[in-house]
Amino acid sequence: MKLFIIGLGSVIPEHVHVVEELAKQHEILYWLYIYDVAKSVDKARFPGTVFHDYRAALKGIHSENIDASRFEPWSKDDIVLFSAIESEIMSMIDKWYPDWPILKRKDFYYDLLCYWGGVLDQLNPDAILFADVPHQMFDFVLYEIAKRRGIKTIILDPVFRYDRLVTYRDYRAGNEALANWKQRARETKLNELAPETRGYYLEVSGSKDPSPAHFTEWNKVNSGLYKFRRHAMSLIPFIRDGSIIERGVMRIFKMLKSNVKDEYLALERPADLKKPYVYVPIHYQPELTTSPQGSVYVDQILMMKTLSAALPVDWELYIKEHPAQWMAHGGNFTSYRYRGIYEEMARLRNVRLVPVTTNTFTLIDNAKAIATATGTAAMEAILRGKNALIFGYPWFMHAPGMFRVSCVEDCRKAFARIMEEKRADEQDILNYLKVVEEVSFRGYTAGEGASVSTYDRKEAWQEILKAIEDELRK
């Protein structure tokens, strides 16, 4: 088969071996990856392959192996056919180019349509492999054009603790076996789950604070001595170029101004665990969990407005900011956390911003339900005996106890069921986990998975290779 490989080798260097093995049975037409990561790639072993650097693609720079001068701009009618994704692309551009005006963003998008449409016309692949859910401007456009043209797409997505993967053809539909898990499920006892799955279930369902290991590590390196050391290292270039004093003065002035954290702290109120409430943990942004997986609910205030309009009498929404949001952006206002955003949230009916330091599992355990676009708090909730409302397309969207919602009326119906104490049956949860275990495979496409995995790295890439080959044969 003629293949495009998008992203594989960009994070985990040994994934180069997956592509090398695929090349023995298939023709690799196009390979896009981060050149600086996959330094071991011997391009001589891939005669005829078009190579494209990931970082260049982010800037809209074409592969040097493609003569795009012959590609004609799309017509109005062709562009209109893809109008449903234009809003999503505008959000994705915000991650890298937040200062771009709307017309520059549109022109960038139209150029992406022209380039990737032309590449598909010229090379005509049989299948395209994406190392994760397409969430950058270039791979999202490629994915959408490919889907409309009927080209097979294969997406890898992590499950559980990021050290296992499933495959999709369409991220909006999810894994086919998981979508139809009841047809495949059999009554499963706890001791019939594999040790990894059983450990995950017992930890998340029974531990007081089962924070994922990768988040604990992230928090560690972004606080205390680790944070001080990282900041100290970042000052070295400014010391060398003599701008350290000027930057220091600017930093002092910045500290005197109110920042995004100050706005939140001025509005927060302690959580009253005795009141009926729905817990809404805000997503870190920008990230693929809201764009594209959250769809229109990349605007999380829209999600909050929808929930607020549907809330039963006397219920509240407890909103909690993601603890990484302020650390990652240094307390600065951004296009995703603009000045006044928390004030907008706080003005909504029956909404309360709770302190970020409030334990998320305490909030889950005392909530009537959890609501999120795609956050793992929803999966954690059902494992802890709660229901969850999800607005987007996470890998677990078909799990028992999940209410998939997209409007006020959907939420009202979900809340009515929850008030009747309709919760996921523990047996259904065990059956579902067994299906996840059977259809997923060992492997990881991100550093989080590599940091928590307990198995051999060679085994990981070999299982990824086998899963891809299986999908190509379908």
Automatic annotation (TrEMBL):
GO terms for biological process: polysaccharide biosynthetic process; polysaccharide transport. It comes from Candidatus Kaiserbacteria bacterium RIFCSPHIGHO2_12_FULL_53_13. This is Capsular biosynthesis protein. InterPro entries: Capsule_polysaccharide_synth. Pfam families: Capsule_synth (PF05159).
